[in-house]
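Hey team,

Filing this mostly as a record. A colleague (T.K.) asked me to run one chain through the structure pipeline before their review meeting, and I want the input and output archived in the tracker in case anyone asks later how it was produced. No errors, nothing strange. Just documentation.

Input sequence:
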Amino acid sequence: MRLLKQASNEDRLGTVLAGLDALGLTRWAINRPVFEAVRKVWNSGRELAEIPARSYDELEPVKPDNYDSDAAARYKYQMEMREWVNGRANQHSQRCDCNYKIEIAQAFLDHPMYFPHNMDFRGRAYPIPPHFNHLGNDLCRGLLMFDEGRPLTDKGLYWLKIHLANLFGKDKLSHDERIRFVEENVSHIMAIADDPMPDAFLASEPDATRPWWLDAENPWQALAACIDYAGAMRSPHPAEYVSHLHIHQDGTCNGLQHYAAMGRDRKGAEEVNLAMSERPQDVYSGILRVAERLVDEDAKNGVEEALQLQNKLTRKI
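Output structure:
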């Protein structure tokens, strides 16, 4: 705090505060086609794409007849009942949270939105409204778009395709492979734009086809991207299509990127995607390979802990 006050007194926070002002003055809007799809799923009561079901359908455990006389049976029933109660409470909590987000979106359907930002000690800016913002979950991100659009341009169209492929979990492929994935699924994308959530599917009719966008890792954002891409492709000049979509990009382990850059570490730069490569690199997999090599060496020397760890390490450990 002392250093922050000193920087303020010396008028060295102007650029930082101007950045926060720029973020707070950015106008956002609700993506109406996505909202309509969200509302249809919500009103159906089905559990789909992070929207929880209207009711908790797990059957309540039945109290055994020997509850009072058999300690093992009593303990088993109590554990099952505890799990059931927790599941019901979690489902209700998720339903309330989702309902709150939808109500906020509905309130701003015809109005622009602004998100004032603050900054943490690392210099990262975050929107202050906690329940509904562009850094929220997939539902929040899919429902939001920029209020002021911009022409896509050829470069923007390229990154829209990359973004759409990423939302389907193709982010470890090369850019060319991601572009090809989108172009090979144009028929799905166009069908989605025409009818994002078919009534037949919501009604569970036997011959109904599951919408393709529901198979994405981030389905609501994928739906928004499909609608935007279809709009561009159907316009006379796709590069001139005015897009309102926000495309998120993230670094690979930003701290390690800084270390690699400061240390001129070529190998480290490759692992965190600072150096060019055909496919995106995963630093955690790289660390896993090093750890496995060290474990194997210790196992050869009879180290007990290494013998227990062999073939059990994953990139998440």
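Quick notes for T.K.: The two ends are 36 Å apart (CA to CA). Residues 119 and 125 are 4 Å apart (CA to CA).
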